[in-house]
């Protein structure tokens, strides 16, 4: 049990750091250069699982290929477009709290799309998560809500939980046919051509190639925050179970806010109030 907790905490801490680390490469390179290099590194790290025993035939076979392409476009390309562009315009603490609504959004979309039965307590959780989300997005100001005034970064980030919900729901079906350690490098590999094309269109020079503040953060993002964190998360979920393990996702905004405090970033009351509401809502919405 302590081993499972440790693995899940390590994942949450690494993911919480993403909201801060991603700012550095974005200051010297276009967003899709960052996205492409990050996931190319992750694919290299996880490729052995795809190649072993010719597992790629399972992922890219006729039964799964179209679903895998769809998931690559939605869950990798679209999600990371919203996330990366949003984080370029938003504060780490605010961004992490918006992304924390992912589980509640997934539950809500699952009800609309798959007609999943949702208990009253889970509906309450969804409502609370969205209430907390709006509180954060409008920075705790009724006046901002009345004028529909919200930061550009916050608006872009709102797309991330929506597309992640679609990805999560659809991936459940595919993961019944494709093992997790085969699915992940496969879906990341399929996302690279589109990311590479857009990265090429955004390329306006190679100044970033010699920048240490591009490579060290991107290596962290690709190897630690995607590859290692993912491996730790899946092993922790395997040991503890999905229902209980998913609660650890709520440590991500906590980690991000602690890092913000350590780095001397400004934190506001709406971060703490809205964050508590989101976390409570996610816990309720994630209950069986």
List the helices and strands and how they pair.
Layout: H1 2-21, H2 23-26, H3 31-51, H4 56-59, H5 65-89, H6 92-99, H7 102-114, H8 120-137, H9 142-146, H10 152-157, H11 159-174, H12 180-202, H13 212-240, H14 242-245, H15 251-262, H16 269-285
Helix pairs in contact: 1-13, 1-15, 3-12, 3-13, 5-11, 5-12, 6-15, 6-16, 7-8, 7-11, 8-16
**Low-confidence regions:** none
Helix content: over 70%
Taken in chain order, the helices and strands follow as HHHHHHHHHHHHHHHH
Mean residue pLDDT: 84
Q: Total helix count?
A: 16
How many domains would you count in the coordinates?
1
What is the number of E strands?
Answer: 0
Task: Give an account of the 3D structure.
Helix content is 78%, strand content 0%. The chain has 288 residues and is mainly α. The chain has one domain (2-285). The longest helix is centred in the last third of the chain and has 29 residues, at 212-240. The chain is globular, with a radius of gyration of 19 Å. The relative contact order is 0.23. The model has no long low-confidence stretch (mean pLDDT 84).
């Amino acid at each position: 049990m302590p081993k499972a907790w440790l693995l899940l905490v390590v994942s949450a801490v690494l993911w919480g750091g993403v909201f801060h680390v991603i700012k550095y490469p974005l200051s010297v390179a276009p967003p899709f250069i960052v996205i492409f290099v990050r996931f190319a590194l992750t694919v290299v790290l996880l490729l052995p699982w795809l190649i072993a025993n010719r597992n790629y035939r399972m992922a890219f076979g006729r039964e799964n290929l179209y679903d895998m392409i769809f998931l690559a476009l939605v869950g990798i390309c679209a999600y990371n477009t919203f996330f990366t562009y949003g984080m370029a315009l938003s504060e780490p603490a605010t961004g992490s709290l918006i992304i924390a609504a992912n589980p509640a959004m997934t539950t809500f979309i699952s009800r609309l799309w798959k007609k999943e039965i949702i208990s009253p307590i889970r509906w309450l959780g969804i409502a609370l998560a969205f209430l907390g989300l709006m509180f954060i997005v409008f920075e705790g100001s009724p006046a901002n809500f009345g004028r529909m005034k919200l930061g550009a970064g916050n608006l872009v980030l709102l797309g991330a939980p929506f597309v992640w919900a679609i990805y999560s729901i659809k991936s459940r079906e595919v993961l019944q046919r494709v093992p997790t350690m085969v699915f992940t490098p496969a879906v990341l590999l399929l996302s690279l051509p589109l990311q590479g094309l857009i990265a090429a269109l955004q390329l306006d020079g190679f100044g970033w190639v010699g920048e240490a503040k591009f490579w060290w953060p991107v290596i962290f993002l690709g190897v630690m925050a995607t590859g290692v964190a993912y491996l730790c998360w899946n092993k922790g979920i395997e040991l503890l179970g999905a229902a209980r393990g998913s609660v650890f996702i709520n440590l991500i905004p906590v980690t991000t806010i602690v890092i913000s405090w350590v780095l001397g970033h400004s934190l506001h009351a709406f971060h703490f109030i809205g964050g508590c509401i989101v976390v409570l809502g996610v816990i309720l919405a994630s209950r069986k």
